[in-house]
Amino acid sequence: MHLPKAELHLHIEGTLEPELAFALAGRNGVVLPYADTEELRTAYLFDDLQSFLDLYYALMAVLRTEDDFAELADAYLARAAAQGVRHAEIFFDPQAHTDRGVPIGTVIEGLGRALERSEETHGISTQLIMCFLRDKSAESALETLEAAKPHLHRISAVGLDSAEVGHPPAKFREVYAAATALGLRKVAHAGEEGPPEYVREALDVLGVERIDHGLRCMEDPELVDRLVSERIPLTLCPLSNVRLRAVDVLEEHPLPAMMAAGLLCTVNSDDPAYFGGYVGDTFHAVHEALGLDREQLRTLARNSFEAAFLDHDEERRAR
Ligand code: ADE
Ligand code: ZN
């Protein structure tokens, strides 16, 4: 689907296609425990979020140099451009790299190099969202924010991702307050596998402006009313929800009910190399499986620009 759109929920490490993983492994002398790309692809059968995260973090071992991160981001931007993306707000997971000895500057400057030429090369404006891994400590998140300070001109917002259940948003109260003081914007994954209460906490304790996923808000009608009346955007990822078994089949995804309830829904790809499609493929899939018509797809595309961290002029240019 080539409707002009913004992508707001995209983990850059989740765009690592098997072919690039093997190319980087060869370049960096990393031995992968798979014979080839075909065998690696057969591992992409997940039971839940954790079973995906185990492979997602393991495969990052191939990313070592600034050039690797720049190449990863550039490959995503080329694919996104071909699917109508005009603006992308891109997550990255610094702790997944610093924990294996890759300096945070290597990660941010490598990604930044690809992003700063993206408008010219791919016609996509970009922002970078630094995520804290919620299954690591609050202290580690604070250290990460501190370490990122020399590179803050490249970062627009902070986010929260990784294993959700047992790691409520309130654990990260202090680092979100510090990020606010630095002028950063705020989002958080909530209500993917975790309960509706985590969505409320992300809003009330962390002060986030958007909720990533938010799927489980549908279990709590009062919360839905609040999200509707405050026009809090949800960055939904339907293909991810199927692959990680949050919903059984795409045909049963609550997206149509969420739109009918008046929620500000956007559709995104999450980790497209693992979940079977980039954002244009996702638009196509919800059209086919859920019967969303052209007007509803246009609404989703319009919502993506409304929910983006763009000012009015930037929004007009991107659309
Ligand atoms: N990191 C990458 N993809 C994720 C997802 N869907 N949920 C939480 N953390 C993630
Ligand atoms: Zn995500």
Automatic annotation (TrEMBL):
Residues the record marks as active site: 192 (proton donor)
Q: Which cofactor does it need?
A: Zn(2+)
What the record notes about the co-factor is:
Binds 1 zinc ion per subunit.
Q: Which reaction does it catalyse?
A: adenine + H2O + H(+) = hypoxanthine + NH4(+)
Keyword annotations of the record: Hydrolase, Metal-binding, Nucleotide metabolism, Zinc
* Similarity comment: family membership: Belongs to the metallo-dependent hydrolases superfamily. Adenosine and AMP deaminases family. Adenine deaminase type 2 subfamily.
Protein name (record): Adenine deaminase
Task: Give the organism the record lists.
Answer: Streptomyces clavifer
Highest classification ranks of the organism? Bacteria, Bacillati, Actinomycetota, Actinomycetes, Kitasatosporales
